[in-house]
Structures are given as structure tokens and as C-alpha cells.
Request: fold
Amino acid sequence: MTDKTNPFLIPFQTYRETPPYSAIRNEHFIPAIEQGIEECKNIVNTITSNPDLPTFSNTIVALERDGEILNRVCGVFFPLLSAMNDDEKMDISLKASSLLSEYSTDLILNDKLWQRVKYVHDHTDATKLSPEDATLLNNTYEFFERNGALLQGADRDRYKEIRAELSSLTTKFAQNVVKELPTYEIFLQETDLEGLPQSAIEGAAFAAKQKGREGEYLFTLDQPVYMSFMRYSDRDDLRKHMYMLYNRRNTTGTFSNTELLTRIASLRLELAKLLGHETYAHYSLVHTMAKDPEHVYALLNKLAEAYRKPMRKELKDIEEYATKVNGHHTKITPWNYAYYSNKLRTHRFGFDPEEFRPYFRLENVINGIFGLASRLYGLQFKKSENIEPYHPDVVAYEVSDQDGKYLGILYTDFFPRPGKQPGAWMTDIKEQQILPDGTDSRPLVSIVMNFTKPTDTKPSLLTPQEVRTFLHEFGHALHSLLSKVNYKSLSGTNVYRDFVELPSQFNENFLTHREFLDTFAFHYETGEPIPQQLIDRWKESQQFGAAYDCMRQLYFGFLDMAWHTITAPHNDVAQLEQEATKEVQAFEPLPGCMVSPQFSHIFAGGYAAGYYSYKWAEVLDADAFSVFEREGVFNKDTAMRFRHEILEKGGSEKPDELYRRFRKGEPSIDALLKRDGIIK
Reply:
């Protein structure tokens, strides 16, 4: 293969410089990564061999403008690894992660480069720099300092070994989660389908037909399939079977992650200690709003204390209802909680998520959510026929400002398929930055979800929770699309981890507002708008189960912190999980059921000692939306202040300062507690 055949080695000659996916082959990735690394090494060599005194421009900015080849290939490969994986890509990812980890370690431990960075840091008056330049300088200096630049001799060698092993292990962890999920196929007969909604039955019949087993019904552990089954199936035995399968994933067998995760946690602890920190959490939290584990635990414990009694009351109410309905005592279990909770919600409020599906046709929801961004921020979205997607299900949109100025490209990828991770996420294919010639290089962004796919007879119809997920990921996308900074390392979602969820979770708050729903919630067959009565019941039910949901998130938060505040290696996964979460558990743990072995967020997804950030950001999002409620939910001035102070700024300034400028004050936890009905 010659250089000319590899599309990554030159700028993409396509509309808006979008990836030419049909020209990209798996065999292109590793050579492009290798050549990209060489390009980066040449840039670093140019910096370190410069005879002039180190300056902000010839060292810090020069390092920020790293290799274009590596940016292109990584911007394509890693999103594909999550959205269109296969065995070959998994093998490539191991090699790629190894190459990138080795290069990153060599960069960090380059003494000549470190000395230049340190010189600029020590000899520059940061007060004379712009806030963004000062942030870049400080971030660059701390990046080296926090990643081993001060280590020498055996400590430096060990640091390199740890980074290499962690890169391999975290990649393997993620692969095991992806590989095991499709191995679960539960084929049922018509007599097994009691209670299931027609949409779930049709989807299962369609899935079985595709497997050559027409007349049967295939259920998998894909999130929308699993959740629908647990919520609606009348068969307690089948719900228990599904629950045990789902919660024992990656605990034993070929794809077990138990040994991997204990090794990952131990290596992270060793790395933190090498760098002078008590635990990995102490090391990881320096660059966050929380600052240290003590502040994280303070938030988690405060929320646990506030929500514990309300959760117990919720569980008691559900158990009393189930007992009354069944005519005998019915204990609430992990596998019947969703079922009876949904029934009580329906009984108490007349609320059933399935009632909303006919009004939430995906195509209409897309128009509504795009319209919300247009109303708030003046954005325009146009489906592009000039851009090649990476899969036939994917649609690309060109995004422009109210004055027609181009802002970026948004790819939407909505449906499950083999090789695609479960869940939902947003990712940058290319990040916004100002190029050396002054050109504003705009971002390429994708949002990826796993909604129920259309069948031969029915379009994709969403539940309220799925619309909420769409709003959430779209909020992340807006953070990147509206970015207006100079440096890509500070653009879009490149912010403190406990700030990154603010734009996404904030966006969810519009979901139940009639003015928003009126723009898209029409019955897919009759065209009738969603009835006000249905919306009223929905709003009334919003606080139902809020305490349980919060305690579930706190379970994840405490578990994450437990793994990353260990002070010695810990190999008993079940024991640590039980001990860490006992104060927030809704149910006694079941044998073999654990979260840790499938907890990709913290063992493979960048949220190590960071899962608390969802709740941290939830405090901020509720507080921020209270400003909108006070000034007008669709107040253009308020929206544009949120755009200018939060969405456009990325990580160019400290998030505390950005938020205070938008809020015109300090955030309070009260808005969240009021929203969830914990306080009046």
C-alpha cells in the first residue's frame, strides 16, 4: 500500500472536509496512526531544537498545533470502534492504543520539551495573557507535571510500564462488554408474551425473523429491549431470568472482567502513588470543580441523606400496591421493581410511557429538538446529501447560525446493530479550533443512540425516556457545535469532567413543556397533537420514583469512588461493591450480580473517580434551569447568555467563573431537591 492510497495522509478532499468513509479500510488505520505519530514527533523535535528562548508562541502554542494526520485518523477510528465494531477493529484498537500510549508517554517524559514548557510557565506573567491563553499555559504545564515529567530513573520506567498496561487492559475491558452482549439471545413463544406492548412484540418477531426463526420472538439484552421487557412482562420467572442474565454480564467465562478491573484499579493506585498522591481519586480530582474526594463524598452523602427516606417510602408504596393487586403479600425485588413501579405510576397518575410512543415518532422528534435549538440559539439544521455517512442508518446535517454562518456537521446514528455499543453518547470526529492562518475550523460531531428500529409496518416510536436521552446527547453536541475558542484542547466538551454534563442535562429540562411538545408531538397515524390530559399526567408523575433513581445513581457514584480510593490492591469485587454501596442499596445483593464488571464508564470510558459528576452537574442543571424559569423558559436573552457564557466557551476559562457569570451568583442544591419533590 502506497501513501497515496491512504485517505488519512492528506486533508480530506470532501465537502466540509468530512471523512470519506467509503474510501476508508481497516488496513488504513495503523499505518496512518504510525505516520501521524512520526509527524507529531517531528513537530516536537522542531520545538525542542529551536535555539530561541522558549515562549508561549514557539512552545505552548506550537505543541497545541500537533499533527493533523493523527487528529484525522483518531477522529474517525475511535468513534467507529464504538458505533461499528468488528473483530478486526478490536484487534486494531489494541495495537492503536499501544502505539498511542507509548507515544503519549514518550511525549510526557521528553525532558527537553518539559524544560521548555516549565521555562515558559515560570517566566510568563499569566495576568498579561488572555484568559484562554493563560488556561492553555496552565493546562499544558499541569499536564506534564501530573503525568510523570518529574519522575526519574526506576520510577520513570515503572510509570511507562503502568501506562502501557492500563491502555491495554481498559481497551480489553470495553471489548469484553461489547463482545458478550450479543451472545445473549432469548427466544420466546407467543404464550410467553403476556403484558408486553405491541411495539415490543413486533420488534421481537422482526428480530427472530431476521435470525431465520419466524414465528418465534427474540429478546436481547440491548437496553431498549431489556427495559421494555422488565417494565411490562407479566411473567415474573422470565423477568427474573432476564435480570440475572443482565446483571451477571462479564462476571465469569470468556468475557469476564473481574480480574481485569481489579488489576486496573491496582495499577491506577500505583500510578497515583508514584506521582505523590494518596489514592487515584486524589490524583484524578485535582482538575475538577470538586477538587478532592472529600468534596465528592460530601455531595454524595448529602444526597444520600436527603433521598434515603423518600426511597424507602417509594418502595413501601409499591409493595403495598402490588400486595393489594395480587391479593397476597408481594415482596418487591430487583426484577419486579420496574414492573410494579410502572403499574403503580399508571394507577396513580394514569401514566404509561407506551401511551406516548404514537406521539413521539422519531422523525418528528428530530424536527422538534432541532427546532428547540433554533428557538433558543438561532441555529439552523439542513440534511446534507453531500456528506457520506459511515453507515446507511446515519444521517448528516449541516448546522448554521441565524445569519447563515456555517457552524459544523452533526451526524445522527439512532438504531442498534451488531458491533455497536449499547447506550447513548456524543463524540467529536473533529474539534473546533482557530488555525494558524486565522481560519475557524468547525467541528464534526456525532450523536449515537439505540432506539427501537422501524419495522416493515411501524416507524420508530420513542418513549419519553428516549426523547430525554436524545435531548441529553444533543446538549453535548451543542457544546461542541457552538464552540468559539482558539485552541482545540479547550474547545467544546474539553472541560472539567464535573462540568461536561451541564449542557446535556440542562437540555433535558425542556421535555415536558407544552410549547416544546407542540412543535413535534403529533400522533403518527392521525396527526392529532398530544392531548393536554396526557401531558398533565406526565408532569404529575415526574417526581414518582425520583428518590429511587437518585439512589441508583449514588450507588454508581459510591462504587466508583470506592474503587479509586483504595489504598492497597483489592481483589474481592463482590465484597468491595457490597461494602461501598450498602448505604444506598434498595435491595439485598443477589449472588453473582455485580455492576463493577460491566462498569465501562469507570474502567474504560474516562469516568474513573468521576461518575459523581453526573449528580454534580445535575445540581448545576437544575439550578441553571431555575434561572430560565425565573426569567422565561424561552427567553432569548437568557438563552443567549447561556450560549455565550457556557456553550461557546468550552474549557477556555474555569467553569466556576463561567457558571457564576451566567447565573449571576452561586449555585444551590435546592433547585434539584425541589424538582425531585424532596423539599417544597
Remarks:
- The first helix runs from residue 26 to 48.
